């Protein structure tokens, strides 16, 4: 069959391309602007030289201010630890929980599923959560950044939906061969769910990397602070310097503004670098549950 393109179809394709190009520009340009502004001369940017496509008087001064802050390096180390280990713990708990709930022979499966979904809509609140964390001895420890809220109900449901699409015949065949539940899970189910694991790992990693409020509540020792807390300190310190400085107010405000841009880049770049490696799984993973197998 030979498809003959009509004028209406051509107009639709062109209009669709233009709209998508516009949406892409709207999404990408703010990120690009922040990056370009962060490597521009603060005085030139603040003085009215609008940035469109290229930096104005290329300068890395604001990055020097950020990276010379004494606590930036150990906070980076802490955030990497919280992100890597926290994501690993969350993935393991989500996989095990979703696998158990997806098995029809689990006693009380419907009731357990109800209580899991219930937590999406009703939570204990900040003070009860703090009391639980302190009562368990997690307060002011690295585990306070990884164990509370380790399992996201939304991600658990996504994994549960994926497990439900795997044919039961695979599990039956493995049981006939004498495989245990652990072997069925880790040698059959987990290798089959690489796309959804990649997507959920990205969700967990972004949440762990950006964890801010949790650190404010559960951490007291400065050596345990994550990157987000230290970047907040840098911004506050520059704002105070700007207000109390004896030099040009415009100069201080210009550097304070550019330090914000540099802080955004420092905080976002590692997570943005992860996406290209997970992109091939991302489209598959986000479509989980759209089509029943």
Question: How would you characterize the overall build of this protein?
Answer:
With 293 residues, the chain is an all-alpha fold. The protein has one domain (64-286): MetI-like fold, CATH 1.10.3720.10. The chain has 13 helices and no strands. It has helices at 7-38, 42-46, 61-67, 72-102, 109-118, 126-135, 153-165, 168-176, 181-192, 194-209, 213-218, 227-244, 249-286. The longest helix has 38 residues, at 249-286. Mean pLDDT is 81; it is low at 289-293.
The helix content, as a percent range, equals over 70%
Q: How much strand?
A: under 5%
> What is the residue-averaged pLDDT?
81
**Strand pairing plus helix content: what structural class?**
mainly alpha
Top CATH class: Mainly Alpha
Q: What is the domain tally?
A: 1
First and last CA, distance: 29 Å
Under CATH, the homologous superfamily reads MetI-like
Largest sheet: none
- Gross morphology: flat
Unreliable spans are 289-293
Number of helices: 13
Number of strands: 0
Radius of gyration computed on alpha carbons? 25 Å
CATH topology-level name: MetI-like fold
* CATH architectural arrangement: Orthogonal Bundle
- Topology as H/E string? HHHHHHHHHHHHH
Secondary structure: elements and pairs:
Blueprint: H1 7-38, H2 42-46, H3 61-67, H4 72-102, H5 109-118, H6 126-135, H7 153-165, H8 168-176, H9 181-192, H10 194-209, H11 213-218, H12 227-244, H13 249-286
